[in-house]
Amino acid sequence: MAILPHALTPRTPPAPGTTPLRVVAHGARSVRGLRRMRNEDAVLLASPLLAVADGVGGHAGGDDASALTVAALRRAVPDGAVRDPEDALLDALDEANAAVRAAARSRRVEGMASTVVAALLTAEGVTVAHAGDSRAYLWHDGRLERLTDDHSLVAVLEAREQITEDEARRHPLRSSILRAIGLDDELRADVDTVPVAPGDVLVLCTDGISDQLTDAEIADVLASTTDPDEACDVLVALARETGGDDTTVVVAQLG
């Protein structure tokens, strides 16, 4: 078993125009944390479109921001039949950003925002778009590959080798997000399309998982079971042993 950082190891993509892979089994969990009265995470399960969103911790209206975000994704990509999946996801996130900004203005709420990661299965592979520190992983051939780079202060410090990965997970500013839906008038989201193969497993999660578990711990769980439901249960249970935030994860087996 190996843990691979982004970017992915080269794989031969499917031929253009071939039938896209589909989700053959999935599990999803979203559990309210111990620190707030409401679960501020949201999940979208509309195969071939999957997403998780996380209302930015400590900001008013976080639960509404995450709900508006997944609703915008669902409207913009109603059935996955889009000509350009990268443009479709970016347009959807722009729509979500505008919706959250408008809601914040109408309610006179400062800092209403949400992180998001969305994955769309196409004939070319899986297209992943994200803003913030919600993550996407791909389990392929016994290896875990992180598909996203966190838009956070600690991620910048870690990239500059000013702190270690372990220090980043315990840093007092680990919740400082540099990009998110609703933070700015103009959203800067990242998008990429990577090849996938039958048997691959896609994982989407909020920081309630990734702040508490290392990539190696996530990989150990995926190596121990082929049942997405069981993987979700174990990941949530492990994360909640040491964390108190909302905990959300989607595990989808592709075929």
Automatic annotation (TrEMBL):
Alphabetical list of SMART domains matching this protein: PP2C_SIG (SM00331), PP2Cc (SM00332)
Region (Disordered) location: 1-20
PROSITE patterns referenced in this protein's UniProt entry, alphabetically: PPM_2
InterPro entries tied to this protein: PP2C, PPM-type-like_dom_sf, PPM-type_phosphatase-like_dom
GO molecular function annotations of the record: protein serine/threonine phosphatase activity
Pfam families cross-referenced by the UniProt entry: PP2C_2 (PF13672)
Protein name: PPM-type phosphatase domain-containing protein
Originating species: Paraconexibacter algicola
